[in-house]
């Protein structure tokens, strides 16, 4: 398994909290990570990528501006905000703008950082933040759709160097947040409660550099488990963690796909046909929104009718029309998709609208009769290091007709 994209992005930003170099191991080689390295360089850090190891020398980092050209390509760039405010007391971050998976407000980031004493003004499309002094506070981060992963990360990073004690309530519990907190702790931060909805942070005066290994990517593992479920077979995923995938494993069992935990690995033994299962996406430990599209591909060829409801991103359904082009029978009702299982999908040219949808279409193409051509692979390359290679190892007949940029 590759390292988790959504863990390494904020952890790279966190390296800016120290003056000393840090080495991050097990970083996936995906384009979002390359972009985050570019953002750190833009801010003045020296960043060396050698395979899955990234070394950041933050001592020359005096920049405070995350420019529009970079932020508009990746929402996660907003996680430089917390470190910049904590370390440089100023940050200019382009307003993130819209996103293909629906509206992505930043009110919780704003609320959290304001609680710690930062303030901002909007100037020419940028949020210009100031924080002469950050002070610990009680911060409640519950929003209209529950907790927020990157808002929790931003507050955590700012609080690590703030004066006094911060309590984050309604904190996100995702494993990637725990990984960031563990990395910060290894840098000398004082954090307890990560992985629960209440995190306590006792600010320290400075953090040191770290050598830190990123957790494995649960969404990549989940995508491969669903792939095996779609075409049948016996697959073992080394490094995949059941404790990060309980909600998926539970739903796969309902679809009659057995996943067993073996030491350090997950093994799936799938036979066709699979059964329909209703799914609601929720913050961790609920079913992850980042596996909703892939699960919809599986449900489209499972027996019966399933209802997939999005409670994290109610607009994240761009893949429905592409799956229907392949013969799926899916209708949308507000924040739900009603999927009537069909006996088979039929290969077609399709276009990936976003990262997780691109994986769903690759999986659907693998299960479909005849050939499917998926375009828009720049989305896939944002978050999957080598999905086509992994699927080929599992026996899929899949190849890229255009090289990665
Ligand atoms: N939200 C607000 N206000 C905020 C922030 C978020 O209302 O200030 C809402 C969002 O609109 C959404 C919900 O809260 O409805 C949850 O969003 P969250 O902030 O948790 O998302 P994020 O932190 O921006 C991360 C992942 C996403 C993943 C979500 C949910 C990274 C880099 N990105 O985004 O990953 O879908 O958490 O788990 O960690 C992906 O990898 O494909 C991806 C989109």
Q: What's the helix and strand layout?
A:
Elements: H1 5-14, E1 22-25, H2 31-42, E2 46-50, E3 53-57, E4 65-66, H3 68-71, H4 81-88, E5 90-94, H5 107-115, E6 119-123, E7 126-130, E8 138-140, H6 149-160, E9 165-169, H7 175-186, E10 190-192, E11 198-202, E12 211-213, H8 218-231, E13 233-238, H9 246-254, E14 258-262, E15 265-270, E16 279-281, H10 292-299, E17 305-310, H11 319-325, E18 329-333, E19 336-340, E20 349-351, H12 355-367, E21 373-375, H13 377-383, H14 387-393
What does this molecule look like?
The chain has 405 residues and is an alpha/beta fold. It folds into two domains: 5-213, Alpha-beta prism (UDP-n-acetylglucosamine1-carboxyvinyl-transferase, Chain); 218-393, UDP-n-acetylglucosamine1-carboxyvinyl-transferase, Chain (Alpha-beta prism), CATH 3.65.10.10. Helices cover 33% and strands 23% of the residues. The strands form six sheets. Strands 2-3-1-12 form a four-stranded mixed beta sheet, with helices on one face. Strands 4-5-7-6 form a four-stranded mixed beta sheet. Strands 8-9-11-10 form a four-stranded mixed beta sheet, with helices on one face. β2 (46-50) and β3 form a beta hairpin. The protein is elongated. Uridine-diphosphate-2(N-acetylglucosaminyl) butyric acid is lined by residues 6, 9, 75-76, 104-109, 143-145, 148-151, 172, 176, 289-290, 312-313, 355-356, 383.
